[in-house]
Write a structure and sequence with these properties.
Helix content: 40-55%
Shape: globular
CATH class of the largest domain: Alpha Beta
Radius of gyration: 19 Å
Distance between the termini: 33 Å
Structural class: alpha/beta
CATH topology of the largest domain: TIM Barrel
Number of helices: 13
CATH architecture of the largest domain: Alpha-Beta Barrel
Strand content: 5-15%
Number of domains: 2
Order of helices and strands: EHHEHEHEHEHEHEHEHHHHH
Strand order of the largest sheet: 1-2-3-4-5-6-7-8
CATH superfamily of the largest domain: Aldolase class I
Largest sheet: 8 strands, parallel, barrel
Oligomer: single chain
Length: 325
């Protein structure tokens, strides 16, 4: 069932686009982006009309070696301020905090002392209580909050329903449907989106979508969710993200009918910064190994290792995956 009156040609003023190029893309290059790249992306997103820009993770420095990752793995407030200043723009700043991988009570300051507007909590379905603790802490500190339920394609209907009810009773503003393994088809995404929206609407919450491109369906799944009424949309420039990547920002903005969005700044950014990044050897995007893990609804870590080993024996790899299915 589609949202009342919403079609592919609809203008939907409630839609928000969130750029997560630095965060999801940072998984490709261990977050080693130059300040020039980050500043250029920040200004391109502003000119493109993007609503939120995610700078990376608030990862624990006790769990992760700061010498092995770029600064956007940790998103110190002072590092963000060096890029955005006081961010006197219409675009808001976000970061992601993973359950169990973030010292949120210490590292997430009160909103009045931070350039960050939105904290996005990432959780698996079995860590929902810990996610709610993080949500409530961040809400008390003055932030907007969202929650990403990861690997939803591995969860059963009963668990999904219970998770949605628990989260919607919290102070979270938006609940994200996340196709972590890029295994879902538009019909499945539509059905899940409808279920998320039924519960979210009951509690006055919003629903978002974060799609992966293993089967080249990230954009299709995103617009299917839009038609159903999902309003927070994740995207990355050139689809930059772990493994196969995500829904490309330039495709999404080209599709959305809201006149505030403009793809020209993103095209200029791709020309000036994404092409050189690819030419430097940073690799992401659709490829056969990621297709195969997507088809089988498996984590892409085996495909990532396959790529690192520069293997090309796709059929053998598929048989290996089937052995572990």
């Amino acid at each position: 069932m589609r949202a009342e009156g919403r079609t592919l040609m609809s203008y939907a003023p409630d839609i928000k686009v969130l750029d997560c190029t630095l965060r999801d893309g940072g998984l490709v290059n261990d977050f080693f982006f130059t300040d020039e790249f980050v500043k250029a992306l920040y200004h391109a997103n502003i000119r493109a009309g993007v609503d939120y820009m995610e700078f990376g993770y608030k990862a624990s420095k006790e769990l992760f070696d700061v010498n092995k990752f770029g600064k956007w793995k940790f998103c110190n407030d002072k590092d963000i301020r060096e890029i955005v200043g006081d961010n006197k723009t219409d675009m808001k700043i976000s970061v992601m905090a993973d359950v169990g991988r973030c010292d949120f009570k210490k590292d997430i300051l009160n909103k009045k002392d931070s350039p960050i507007d939105l904290i996005r909590i990432a959780t698996y379905i079995n860590t929902i209580p810990a996610a709610i603790e993080m949500i409530e802490d961040c809400t008390k500190k003055g932030y907007e909050t969202t929650v990403n339920i990861m690997a939803i394609s591995k969860s059963n209907e009963e668990d999904i329903n219970a998770a949605l009810e628990l989260l919607c009773k919290s102070s979270v503003g938006t609940i994200y449907l996340v196709d972590s393994y890029g295994s879902l088809y538009p019909e499945q995404v539509g059905s899940l989106a409808q279920r998320y929206l039924e519960v979210a609407n009951k509690y006055g919450k919003r629903v978002g979508i974060h799609a992966h491109n293993n089967q080249q369906l990230a954009f299709a799944n995103t617009i299917e969710s839009v038609i159903r009424g999902v309003c927070y949309l994740d995207a990355t420039v050139s689809g930059m993200g772990r493994g196969c990547g995500n829904c490309p920002s330039e495709i999404l903005l080209g599709f959305l009918k809201n006149p505030k969005y403009n793809i020209n700044p993103l095209l200029q950014f791709i020309e000036n910064h994404i092409i050189p990044l690819r030419e430097s050897g940073v690799v992401w995007g659709y490829d056969i190994p990621y297709l195969l893990t997507g088809i089988l609804n498996q984590h892409p870590k085996t495909a990532i290792q396959f790529e690192k080993e520069q293997r090309k024996d796709y059929n053998n790899f598929y048989l290996e995956l089937l052995d572990n299915f």
